[in-house]
């Protein structure tokens, strides 16, 4: 995999064509849309703002592009999807997570399609793919993050249906979602179940979550107080809850990395531009050897992290189960991205410290990835587990 901050994908004509069209949309039409509305990464945006992006991305073939053709996608490989996610992350767009459907769209719903009944597909999931509805995912609780089995949200049988009580936090896309894929413990057992919960149901309240350090308003708390769900809203079977909630773990863990790589690439590109144009001591900042060494280390770290990630994605495409590699990639990408963002702020100096600076926002966002989707410490535990137990686990 050659090093470049603007991959051409010449060796893969289909991917080259997709990336070219995607860049045109991100840098042209979507950039103009965001500028017209005056959006920033910390804006509160509503369905009225998001739906046109979902629909337009769907028209252009990007929304749900990873899905099989029978669901309107192009059946992308993991490597191809990773490349598109990286391009979106590198674009600097405020609404980047709405283009491929990461935030409430097909990328959230796609992994659960195989569990859904025909009725559930028609009522819930296919409208998401068509950009008509949005969903969120509710697994995490205040006392149940990495240790998901500590959840206290409970589903109690009531006739053929269920009564759910509990409090979910960090439900991404919750502020503008129509329903949640919600995981609960079955009362009186050690089983877990997944439910499709309409967020306007009696007993269900969507509340603003605590604002993360990225400043984005994309998370909600989902509070359930004896909320009734019918038998047709049970996703899969009782006992499938954690399998659904943590499903496709290896693939999802690897596919988080390209988005972060894109943000990292953006931070590196901004830093190079700044160093070239910032005048110090009668010349450009880039002329200083100390700055040259910093950007050399930044670029080398990015290349290493990218190579690890795409090696893991290639293994998935070949039918492998790169579990240890997925943990390693998540760990290395998270830690390397943060170091690069930290250096980007350092090189920008005062310009990198002020709110409203893009590199300052990237620093805050990339810091979060060391915790989100499994902290670095959790990844290390899992890597050690793989090393000590090997094929016996």
From TrEMBL:
Residues 239-387 form the Acyl-CoA dehydrogenase/oxidase C-terminal domain. Keywords: FAD, Flavoprotein, Oxidoreductase. Its EC number is 1.-.-.-. Residues 136-227 form the Acyl-CoA oxidase/dehydrogenase middle domain. One of its GO terms (molecular function) is oxidoreductase activity. CDD domains: ACAD (cd00567). Residues 13-131 form the Acyl-CoA dehydrogenase/oxidase N-terminal domain. InterPro entries: Acyl-CoA_dehydrogenase, Acyl-CoA_Oxase/DH_mid-dom, Acyl-CoA_Oxase/DH_mid-dom_sf, AcylCo_DH-like_C, AcylCo_DH/oxidase_C, AcylCoA_DH/ox_N, AcylCoA_DH/ox_N_sf, AcylCoA_DH/oxidase_NM_dom_sf. Its cofactor is FAD. It holds the Pfam family Acyl-CoA_dh_N. Belongs to the acyl-CoA dehydrogenase family. This is Acyl-CoA dehydrogenase family protein.
